[in-house]
Amino acid sequence: MWCKRLACLLKVPCQPSGSAGHRSSWILHGSRTVLVAAARWHHKAPESLRCAWQLHGDHLELRYANTLMRFDFVWLRDHCRSASCYNAKTNQRSLDTASVDLGIKPKAVRVDETTLFLTWPDGHVTRYGLEWLVKNSYEGQKQQVMHPRILWNAEIYRQAQVPSIDCRSFLETDKGLKEFLQNFLLYGIAFVENVTPTKEDTEILAERVSLIRETIYGRMWYFTSDFSRGDTAYTKLALDRHTDTTYFQEPCGIQVFHCLKHEGTGGRTLLVDGFYAAEQVLQQAPDQFELLSKVPLKHEYVENVGDCHNHMIGVGPVLNVYPWNNELYLIRYNNYDRAVINTVPYDVVHRWYAAHRTLTAELRRPENELWVKLKPGKALFVDNWRVLHGREAFTGYRQLCGCYLTRDDVLNTARLLGLQA
Length: 421
Ligand SMILES: C[N+](C)(C)CCCC[C@H](N)C(=O)O
Ligand SMILES: O=C(O)CCC(=O)C(=O)O
Ligand SMILES: [Fe+2]
Description:
This protein has helices at residues 2-11, 73-78, 130-136, 138-142, 154-160, 167-172, 174-187, 199-209, 274-284, 286-294, 346-364, 407-416, and strands at 26-28, 34-35, 52-55, 59-64, 67-72, 86-87, 92-93, 108-111, 115-119, 125-129, 165-166, 189-193, 212-213, 220-223, 239-242, 254-263, 269-273, 297-305, 308-316, 319-321, 328-331, 370-372, 379-383, 387-391, 397-405. By secondary structure, the protein is α+β, with helices and mostly antiparallel strands. Strands 11, 12, 13, 14, 16, 23 and 25 form a 7-stranded mixed β-sheet that branches. A 4-stranded antiparallel β-sheet has the order 1-3-4-5. Strands 2-8-9-10 form a 4-stranded antiparallel β-sheet. A hairpin with a 3-residue loop joins strand 8 (108-111) and strand 9. Residues 1-25 and 29-45 have low confidence and may be disordered. It holds the Pfam family TauD.
């Protein structure tokens, strides 16, 4: 029956009964090269045949491995991996995309067991692996998460019994580093223990994972409650949950904390999974989640203390999601550092406050709070794009050191160790 249909397609477009009238045709894999013809034709691929395609006026529809994909012709031409279009050694495109006719259309299509072949009007042939197409199509990508994670509240995190990684194994073995990074990617926090409590040793840890991100606070910072900078971090006050450097256009990706000394009381560290809280908002009030992901706000840091003069402004929504799959990748939450809201009209601003309240209520649920006392020797890495931190007020002398890391480089290290990041 399929052969007949094909024959029909090759000659004259045919009209099946009940056709919706699409000018298109499904072609099964295993067919010979056929001239592209528009046909009013709908057909279901028999189950034994895994791949079927259909050519439309401006795109190719392909069904493979239970995925229905639509490819724009310019996209297909742009993604030609032939030697003249793509440098497989450097993984860089050599084709000049701007030279592709925006009205381009393949003049012939063929599919075999593993590969789609397109012949372009100038005779150039492009081959695409079917698996490659599934992986790289919009539809295929949409089904995948970019960053596999385990969202947690205190109970979930405790139950998981995520181990701290021993400093030696972290520094000296890929296995140790990989285990650490896997924990970090899944939970947004990870601990290294048995670290020598000095700034220099903390720096060696940081450098094992990434490049250090130098900021206005320096490369490796070191702080006590000495008011040396114009920020409440440099006091003994309690700090409510927040993410850092919200006033940077790109907030720091990771924060490393290592408590070198504390002679006194209090000063526990609070950790809250911002994505867990945001997920609760999404479940309860999707409109509020959407608002938090759409309304841009400013955060600001104005400092004039001693020789430190800084004025930083970062703009962006509280929740940042990938538009194609709605997956969260960054929460920017710091009520101390949030600037005057002047980017939002009054009616939206009221709804934004309501949404912010819902999120804050989730972030403040006691069951979502993980409290830990940082001790000399135990370094904490926090995903500053996901996990909020805070601290309890304290007495006595307390000295903390640490640094920020560039996120790209942490993920780079993770990918090189074979992790999905
Ligand atoms: C970590 N270190 C003490 C260097 C800086 C603290 C910066 C604090 C600032 N309010 C913020 O949240 O970004
Ligand atoms: O003192 C602390 O434990 C953390 C303070 C803080 O929020 C920070 O340094 O970013
Ligand atoms: Fe902070």
